[in-house]
Fold:
Amino acid sequence: MKPFEGKVAIVTGAARGIGRAIAERLACDGADVVICDLQAEWLAETAEAIRSAGRQALPLAVDVGDGESVAACVAEAVKAFGRVDVMVNNAGITKDTLLVRMTDEAWDDVLRVNLKGTFLFTRAVAKHMMKQRGGAIVNIASVIGLIGNAGQCNYAASKAGVIALTKSTAKELAGRGVRVNAIAPGFISSKMTDALSQEIREQMLANIPLARFGEPEDIAKAVAFLASEEASYVTGQVLSVNGGMVM
Ligand code: NAD
Structure:
């Protein structure tokens, strides 16, 4: 039997990159998957891959920073499938610039999507998971939330916030059988990192002991572990998946 047979997962930011790889991996492992992104039509390829794996896909347009949109998504997921077993808070954005040049808007936008979005989905699914007396939430943080980075004070603060949110909610929900963990990816090949200059990419590669950038599937494998029964004694943890870049 596959590890997520009969289970239902929600994955945010599932149109591309890491979120898409996570959604596809959970479907291959047996889950029906509610896939969310800003526009439903962006989710067509992810939905097709999930259906090719023999599972159901429910693509929904959701802005993770909007409480009503998030509540409607979780209500629709429960209406369609009757339960939510796995929540993956993956949607994230960057608006990088040095502190002294950072606008209020760049600060607010990044905190709204990365941190508030994770809070809103966690709160919305927690009610169902607590009633079910079981569930697993996996939050996608970042190595930058652990070590900080010049030019990314908004992003670093949002991801450090995700880590603190993970630990606090893990403590609150453990008694109801709900586990909450985070993954801190290093440099993963995606549209987000394609935007970096060749010089920065080379500098980063020189600091990765495993001598390659990560692939979205490397993160999906870690999510599959943390969301599964194999991790039934793991909660409140941050799993670094970064090729040894930070130890
Ligand atoms: P990406 O930009 O390729 O994908 C992010 C997805 O989130 C997009 O499909 C986007 O449309 C969606 N999204 C953005 N704002 C949204 C909103 N308000 N509501 C719903 N969906 C929204 O990025 P990625 O590289 O796949 O990153 C995924 C996650 O992994 C992010 O949280 C990111 O911070 C984190 N991360 C990425 C890396 C990396 O190297 N790529 C490293 C560390 C952490």
